[in-house]
Amino acid sequence: MVHTFRSFLRKKVERGEAIVVEKEINPELEMPAAAWKLQREGKPVFFPKVKGYPGWSIVSNLYGTRDLVAEALGVKKEELVPLLRKAIEGRKPYEIVDEAPFFQNRAEADLTRIPVPLYTRGDGGPYFTSAVVFAVDGEYGLNASFHRMMVFDKNKVAIRMLPRDLYHYWERSGGELKVAVAVGLPIHVLLAAAVSTDISVDEMEIANAIAPTPMVEVEGIPVPAEAELVLTGRITEETHPEGPFVDLTGTYDVVREQQVLVFERMYWRENLIFHALLPGGEEHKVLMGMPREPTIWREVEKEGIEVKGVYLTPGGCSWLHGVVAIRKRREEDGKRAIEAAFRGHKSMKHVVIVDDDIDIFNPHEVEWAIATRFQASRDMVIYEGVKGSSLDPSADPITRKTTKVGIDATAPLEGREKFVRAKYEEWRG
User: Fold this and answer.
1) Which has the closest alpha carbon to 220: 179, 268, 163?
2) Angle in degrees, 0-180, between the axes of helices 333-344 and 293-302, rounded to the nearest 10
């Protein structure tokens, strides 16, 4: 069973598997501080009483671990990446329905009525962090993508747009693009919206291949019917400074001039639950990193290499460091996998290739593979002066050039018996 946003939170609360903060909480700094501290327990953090917003509540870390994501999707943790890959390759058209719970309330857009958090004292303002933007292009169809948005007026935000699909939609619109922004979405919708695909791909068909995803049109734009909150408006030619803001690496991103999104209408469910995605937190890492793993898997597999697992590690910000487990059949498979993995995720900075006897989710096992199966003089691949991630504060801030390193920590096929780990018998005492 795949849960909705609400049903999963309800399940965790009813089973005592969520942290419920009964004290009334201020969304400005206090709520983020509490959520940041409590996320360490690996549970959703629920704030049912929000100061100044009676009847509204906030949840953070709802999908903060792979175990939580797997539970919400009704699968095992090891099945997550294959499931997402299968959905990307086998998209399914969704159903358009007439009704949605968020039509219970509607009004002119007024962002002061929404508990948008101020996360840290260094932020440029309150931020929408879990919002997915939906837009329609006459040629390419529906696009769904994550964008952080800084509130600076009653109905205006500065939206961070990289030169990708939504930005191209805006350019093609002539400088004024109608959009719908949704908050409080089920996990399969969030994962699909975070996938990097061709501009012509409708991400909601990926979501619908994972689980039924009924969509409803809001002012001509399809959005998931299960959303908690939907705002409609226009991305304009006007610009406004956006930032500073904490990025995936836990460091502050620079201030940039970004497009202004002017909201016009808002729709919301009764007793709305606002999804606060902690910037740089565990949930941020899971939702940003995991959707890149299928593309790494695909590129390595294209080399004729059997892939057993891919993991963008939390210590590497779930973005810059990856581990790929393969079933090695040729001596050159390790180095070929390195090259392919970097093609699959161009922002990755370091990648480790291991054999399939290594648990890629266990950093001690990965380190053991490096310690016992890797020699830098022959097993390291270095790419100097190549384009990396804009999130990496150590890369060149203008050109984004960096040095990438691949580590082949697979055991050689010849003399492989020297590299087999000893196992103790299982004791049933």
Assistant:
1) 179
2) 140
d(C-alpha 111, C-alpha 278), whole Å = 19
Hey, what CATH class is 93-268 in?
A: mainly beta
Predicted TM-score of the model (pTM): 0.90
Active site residues: 247
> In whole angstroms, what is the distance from residue 273 CA to residue 9 CA?
10
Site of tokens 């849960």: 3
Closest CA to 226 of 192, 264, 187: 187
- What ranges do the domains of the chain cover? 93-268, 288-413
The closest of 235, 211, 17, 253 to 120, measured between CA atoms, is 253
CATH of range 288-413; options 3.40.1670.10, 3.30.420.360, 3.10.20.520, 2.60.450.10? 3.40.1670.10
Phi-psi domain of 415 (left: phi exceeds 0; alpha: psi -120 through 50; beta: other): left
Task: Give per-residue pLDDT as tens, 206-257.
Answer: 999 999 999 999 999 999 999 999 999 999 999 999 999 998 888 898 899 9
